[in-house]
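The following block was generated as part of the benchmark described in Methods. Ligand: flavin-adenine dinucleotide.
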Amino acid sequence: MGDQFEKDVEAFFAALPAVLDAAGPNHRTRLSAYRQLMVAHRMVGFGIPEEYGGRTDVPHANRRFQELAHGRLPKEESSLGIGLNMAVPIILQFGTEEQKKRFIPAALSAAEVWCQLYSEPEAGSDLASLRTTAVLDGDEWVVNGQKVWTSGAHLSEMGVLLARTGDEPRNRGISMLLVPMKQPGVEVRPLRQMTGEAEFNEVFFTNARVPRDWVIGEVNDGWRAATGLLAHERSSLGKVGADEKREASGSAAVPFHYLFDLAMDTNRNTDPLLRQDLARAYTGEKVMGWLGQRSVHPSVGKLWRTKQARFVASLAAQISMSGAAAHVSGDKDSEFWMYHILNSPRMSLGGGTDEIQKNTIGERALGLPREPS
Ligand SMILES: Cc1cc2nc3c(=O)[nH]c(=O)nc-3n(C[C@H](O)[C@H](O)[C@H](O)COP(=O)(O)OP(=O)(O)OC[C@H]3O[C@@H](n4cnc5c(N)ncnc54)[C@H](O)[C@@H]3O)c2cc1C
């Protein structure tokens, strides 16, 4: 028999199907219903103080919950990565008391879903060249400019925005603002990917408004919080992935056992060359798991997961090209592989490209000379 926490987790999962059924097919409605149930069962905010909607009374609650919940969370969970893994930790670290009370409970319950408004058409890897501006007008900031590749902006109530607020060059005149997305000055236009999904967007700001106090840290000193958030992003990338029902969601390496099943189902498991590659994929997954348990530099973990995701996807394509690239619409298995094969290149870009991770490891972990700017 498990302890009280384990019983509470099981009670939550017992109640979940009925709540999702009642919520119907709409993604946002299901997401809210599911997170509100989590709040009711106190299954959110592990390690976060109670006054901000979390709980600290169960040791190792986060790790234990992840283990007990493995493969059982609905796919809607993947829309919360930016809020829970990036915005909340950064508000906890750099935010004021008012900001913590205002934003963290709403992020935990999914009353507010978050997006990350960093990249611009001329500022991706070179983020410090961003051009979106925020100018103070009385008690509000007025925001103008354009962002791009904003994951989940179409589902979001709030965004973490980097904008130029000072005249200083490069990263010195930048502030981090918390911007309400549902307002007339914010226009979200979807971008369709080769998977067929439209998970990210262009976002246009035309005199959008942000309350004066919704700046994280000091004005013109947003860079520290900005890079802190990127480290959280790199650490968390890849944790969301395929669930046991084989529903495609998010960016992650497909678990090895799916690949193994595919090789068995297609009678390719006796091919000696393929068996070597399967062993490599299995080893890669093991190494990835071990890296996850150690506090390696976030860029090392992200690079490894990218390598693993791309290798597994390329093997799946080799084993079952007709079942994936030329997939049968409506067939769950082939749609699953089609999504992951076409989705895997994104891992090398989102959260910073492979080259940028290598530069970061060289400079910050190995102490090599900095790149000339
Ligand atoms: C799936 C996905 C989701 C994303 N979600 C978001 C999001 O929610 N919010 C957001 O703000 N952004 C998001 N992005 C954008 C992402 O952060 C950028 O695509 C990424 O930082 C690269 O920027 P870029 O596309 O402008 O490419 P560029 O910076 O123009 O890079 C082009 C090429 O040049 C290389 N390069 C550039 N500089 C160097 C250098 N100094 N040394 C060596 N090589 C270099 C790069 O590695 C790359 O190969 C997302 C991207 C993807 C793919």
